[in-house]
Amino acid sequence: MKKKSSLLSEQMSAQRKRLILLGFTSLALGAAITVQAVLLAEAVERIFVQRSSLASVAGILGALIGVMAARTLLSYGNGRIGLQMASSAKTSMRAAVLRKLSNASMPMSLRGQTGGKVSVALDAVDEADSYFSQYMPRMMEAAVIPVLILIMVFAQHLNSGLIMLATAPFIPIFMILVGLQTKNKSEEKFAQLAEFSGTFLDSLQGLVSLKLFGRAHLQQQAIERSSLGYRDATMGILRIAFTNTFMLESIVMLSIGIVALELALQLLVFKSLSFQTAFLILLLVPEFYSLLKNTGTAFHSGRTSMGAIRKVEELLAERSETEASLTNWQDGGENMDKTQQTEQMDPADTPGFADRSSIRMPPIIELRDVRFRYAPDSFELAVGSISFGAGEQIAIVGKSGSGKTTLLHLLAGLLKPTSGEVLVNGRPRWQMDEALWFDQVSYITQHPYIFAGTLAENIAIGASREVSRGEMVEAAKAAGLAVVADELELGYDTPVGEGGRGLSGGEKQRLALARAFLKRPAVILFDEPTVGLDLHTERVLQRSIAELAGSATMITVAHRLYTIRHADRILYMDDGVLLDSGSHEELLARLPQYAEMVNAQRKGGFA
Amino acid sequence: MSELAILTKAMIQERKDIAIAIVGGFIAGIAGVSLFSASGYLISQTVFAPPLYTLIVLTSLVKILGLLRAASRYAERLYSHRATFSMLSRLRTSFFAKLIPLTPGILGRNRSGGLLARIVGDVESLQHYFLRVAYPPVIVVMVFLATVIFTSVFSIWIACLFVLGMLITAFVVPGIVLLGQRRRQGRVREKRAELSTEVAEMLYGYRDLKVYGQMKKREQLLQDASAALAAEQEAAARHLLRGQSLHAFVAYLISWGVLVLGAVFIMNGSLAGVFLAMLVMASLTVFEEAAPMATLPAYKQDSEHAANRLAETVLDADRRQPQPSGALSTDKAVSVELCGVSFQYEDECRPALKGITLSIPPGSKTAIVGPSGSGKSTLIDLLLKLRVPTSGLIRLNDISVQELNEASIWQASNVVLQHSHFFRGTIRDNLLLDEESYTDEELAAVLEKALLPNKSLDDPVYEKGENLSDGEKQRLALARVMLRKGRLWLLDEPTSSLDYVTEQRVLSHLLTEAADDTLLLICHRLTGLEKMDRIVVLDQGRVVEAGTYTELMEQKGYFYEMKLIERQMIDEA
């Protein structure tokens, strides 16, 4: 087995107690196996050779059934311990993954591959199961019990013991050979399999196109062809694996045969052995080899699990270098001097933070030489220093990819600057309590997320407190959602989101507004929708935004001329750099790129 | 078990491999039992000091049996796996064939991805059905019966004990395990799905959760769901383990019974003592051969569940009416007429289209505009008979769509869907989706027209066209459609990812190509619509306005206001 990963050794050390217990039950199991064989041999000896009466063997038979029951229970116990180990290992690994995902970072959740991450949290962790539930118990059994059997055999008869000792190493050697021969090829095949099932999925997804172009049946033949090709390739590998298993089983069988022959010779020719001993050895030999053979299957499942555990590990290790730049708010605290720490612990001393009513006042937000990058060699955002007054209306404009949304995330506190600081009312924002800050912020995105739940629950998520039905309905009305609710049979109690009723783009946008109305935030961050809203939503949007902005500092990634013209200040972003800021007229006059962007409207002829 | 009918059919088709595998498995099992019985007999014989040659014969026999067992096991594995993979390939192909008429009908508006991935996974998990569910009992019963016949020579009662053992291990124990298994597996699946949804929700909704301060709560929820899942999984696995232990104990018990019965019969002289060791060894081994029966319930559940879901998915395929024979002619431009057409998706509670009535004369150029979710794309699905209206009538060339063969509608249409699909292969492969032949020059000319002059016909295209930009994909889809000879053009936002200049150039090429044909263009931008004969405005599944560009602008209605808002948009591209 390859070098143990650190996550695995961490898990194993957490399970030390269970491992020791596993060792003891394995030992007991080994004892049960040997005693069972001894009793069985004794019983046969008495019945067959000594012709004793049934009554005289009754005790042995009773003991035998007791040992058999004990053996069953012990082997069940081993399995149970394995399951418990698997269960707690999975829970703790999954907990780590979930913690990582929920605390992690905006970039991590932005960088797509949501499916991949869900799969790590579920599939990879589940695959790790067999390492604990299969591999560990089998390995422990294989490490303890054969030794016990061997000691027993040696004590009874030296030659048989020597034969077993000499042949036993061939089994692991062949296992390793099988592994080495098939490993590379099978990994290659696994890639091919993934590709193949990808092709099948690809064909299913493109089925409508295939139908329309009259090619569906051709694709069906292609699937069959590649499927059979895959079968033949896989069989090539399996043939190698099976051949090796064949060799392995032949070795086991021959070894048993040799032991049997040797026993017979000793019994008959040299007369140096009793029937009872010979029969006992004959009973123990298959147990010995089958335990060793079991390690083979366990080894295989163990290796698959190791791969899965590595996947989990990769996710946990991912981006730890930028972790520092993420939203781990209290992290910065380590660099603070003592006085600041005291201040932080006692926010009551700090005007503007302690009193919740004063928080509702729009704060002054200040960026001080803020720079940000997702990874060391990626695109850098450099905004420099700028300050937003209380209640100011700011519009951010620029081409797509110029960093507008990243800037909004920085302002929201969803990203932490790589260098520089974001100040709120003159104090570094990371010193604030995260919950307290988010309590005064609303972030209205182009694609607000609708959670599985009722319409009412989805609106209520806007407020961090319990809200009454009345308040919720008020907010819904203000955002023009009341019409939608009225149209529904269950009204506000209609399930929406995953598994529920789909909302249209415009309705989602209005839902996001309703959340904001419920919250009445002091800071609104707004990613203005680009296209595709219905007229009703458009009207609601303009009216609502104006209303919400009345009592808040509002920063908008703007796509509408209307929004830009009404902004107090416009920030023009170009390739990650804040090129200029000023009013519409100022920028028109001094920034040609801006003028070009605003005027070069392809719509033409708009007076 | 009707769900497994498809599986059974696939198995019958692989009967040769399966027969070889069964014979191999049977020989391997018998050889194993014989091997250990012979060893037991051999050892017992030595007590009577027989001549050396009997001993040599017996030990040679033991070795030959050992090799025979290993060899037949090899054959069994090889053929059973081959049969499995062949069946899998059959299943894939047959499901694909069944899904052809069902798509996109079975797909809701948004959930297609999950469903299709599930189908792929379900088909894969069916492979266990043969190897681990259908096949082991056959071998086990055969080996048991052979052992029973063999032991009956020595003692009828011991043979009866074997029969009892077989019945218990092959049927009673798996049956008991299955009873509790169904419920437990169901709970595991439920918890797993729950957690999976929750994790995905957390990632998709990350920003909103963070801003609305719900992250802590959500994480706790997830941790609880994860712990619940682990507990359910452990409970299910423990149940299975109990079954395995029960199996093992029954095996020991029967061997013990053989010993006791043997003892009794030896005492009363009806059995020779020399056979006792042999019978005990036989019973210990034969149950080892039955070991796969203990894991059978787990696989049985899984593959049955998969088969069930697949069967549900394709249920309608068998019930489908045969396609009518009516053909849509490609001799002339197509006329389109909709009378009070409504459509509702199965998984939604309000209609996507409500009473649409429209008449589109042959050769006319119509634009359909409206906010997202207003039903524009659904309209195209209905015209193509990909979905059937909930109510109302659609006529193409004055023939009801219901009387038209769907393939002939597709043949007569040049379609660009909102998300065109591309396959792994080359540009050429992806162009020639239809079966007509063109020279390379003609194809290159089409690429030119679609403003893709930099692409060569042999450039590779990855799965789903991953190596193409959105704009390139759209232009390739347009090139593809320009090669077709249909007379009805249905284009769903074909240029949404192109910049204005490219868009206008491509569209003008397109309008030249379609000069004599009927054309329906769904637009997300309201530009360049002056050239269209008519603009139809949809909102919430209804036609709110229709007319020429000038008419609509003068009317100052919905379209006019949309236009005003669009003019407000600053150029992003």
UniProtKB/TrEMBL annotation, chain A:
<dbReference type="InterPro" id="IPR011527">
    <property type="entry name" value="ABC1_TM_dom"/>
</dbReference>
<feature type="domain" description="ABC transporter">
    <location>
        <begin position="365"/>
        <end position="600"/>
    </location>
</feature>
<dbReference type="GO" id="GO:0042883">
    <property type="term" value="P:cysteine transport"/>
</dbReference>
<dbReference type="GO" id="GO:0140359">
    <property type="term" value="F:ABC-type transporter activity"/>
</dbReference>
<dbReference type="InterPro" id="IPR017871">
    <property type="entry name" value="ABC_transporter-like_CS"/>
</dbReference>
<keyword id="KW-0788">Thiol protease</keyword>
<feature type="transmembrane region" description="Helical">
    <location>
        <begin position="53"/>
        <end position="74"/>
    </location>
</feature>
<keyword id="KW-1133">Transmembrane helix</keyword>
<feature type="transmembrane region" description="Helical">
    <location>
        <begin position="162"/>
        <end position="180"/>
    </location>
</feature>
<keyword id="KW-0067">ATP-binding</keyword>
<dbReference type="InterPro" id="IPR003439">
    <property type="entry name" value="ABC_transporter-like_ATP-bd"/>
</dbReference>
<dbReference type="GO" id="GO:0005886">
    <property type="term" value="C:plasma membrane"/>
</dbReference>
<dbReference type="Pfam" id="PF00005">
    <property type="entry name" value="ABC_tran"/>
</dbReference>
<keyword id="KW-0812">Transmembrane</keyword>
<dbReference type="InterPro" id="IPR036640">
    <property type="entry name" value="ABC1_TM_sf"/>
</dbReference>
<dbReference type="Pfam" id="PF00664">
    <property type="entry name" value="ABC_membrane"/>
</dbReference>
<dbReference type="InterPro" id="IPR003593">
    <property type="entry name" value="AAA+_ATPase"/>
</dbReference>
<dbReference type="GO" id="GO:0008234">
    <property type="term" value="F:cysteine-type peptidase activity"/>
</dbReference>
<dbReference type="InterPro" id="IPR014216">
    <property type="entry name" value="ABC_transptr_CydD"/>
</dbReference>
<dbReference type="InterPro" id="IPR039421">
    <property type="entry name" value="Type_1_exporter"/>
</dbReference>
<feature type="domain" description="ABC transmembrane type-1">
    <location>
        <begin position="20"/>
        <end position="304"/>
    </location>
</feature>
<feature type="transmembrane region" description="Helical">
    <location>
        <begin position="237"/>
        <end position="261"/>
    </location>
</feature>
TrEMBL record, chain B:
<dbReference type="GO" id="GO:0005886">
    <property type="term" value="C:plasma membrane"/>
</dbReference>
<feature type="transmembrane region" description="Helical">
    <location>
        <begin position="129"/>
        <end position="150"/>
    </location>
</feature>
<dbReference type="InterPro" id="IPR003439">
    <property type="entry name" value="ABC_transporter-like_ATP-bd"/>
</dbReference>
<dbReference type="InterPro" id="IPR011527">
    <property type="entry name" value="ABC1_TM_dom"/>
</dbReference>
<dbReference type="InterPro" id="IPR039421">
    <property type="entry name" value="Type_1_exporter"/>
</dbReference>
<feature type="domain" description="ABC transmembrane type-1">
    <location>
        <begin position="19"/>
        <end position="288"/>
    </location>
</feature>
<dbReference type="InterPro" id="IPR014223">
    <property type="entry name" value="ABC_CydC/D"/>
</dbReference>
<feature type="transmembrane region" description="Helical">
    <location>
        <begin position="48"/>
        <end position="68"/>
    </location>
</feature>
<keyword id="KW-0812">Transmembrane</keyword>
<feature type="transmembrane region" description="Helical">
    <location>
        <begin position="18"/>
        <end position="42"/>
    </location>
</feature>
<feature type="transmembrane region" description="Helical">
    <location>
        <begin position="246"/>
        <end position="266"/>
    </location>
</feature>
<feature type="transmembrane region" description="Helical">
    <location>
        <begin position="156"/>
        <end position="179"/>
    </location>
</feature>
<keyword id="KW-0547">Nucleotide-binding</keyword>
<keyword id="KW-0472">Membrane</keyword>
<dbReference type="GO" id="GO:0045454">
    <property type="term" value="P:cell redox homeostasis"/>
</dbReference>
<dbReference type="InterPro" id="IPR027417">
    <property type="entry name" value="P-loop_NTPase"/>
</dbReference>
<dbReference type="GO" id="GO:0034775">
    <property type="term" value="P:glutathione transmembrane transport"/>
</dbReference>
<dbReference type="InterPro" id="IPR036640">
    <property type="entry name" value="ABC1_TM_sf"/>
</dbReference>
<dbReference type="Pfam" id="PF00664">
    <property type="entry name" value="ABC_membrane"/>
</dbReference>
<dbReference type="GO" id="GO:0034040">
    <property type="term" value="F:ATPase-coupled lipid transmembrane transporter activity"/>
</dbReference>
<dbReference type="GO" id="GO:0140359">
    <property type="term" value="F:ABC-type transporter activity"/>
</dbReference>
<keyword id="KW-0067">ATP-binding</keyword>
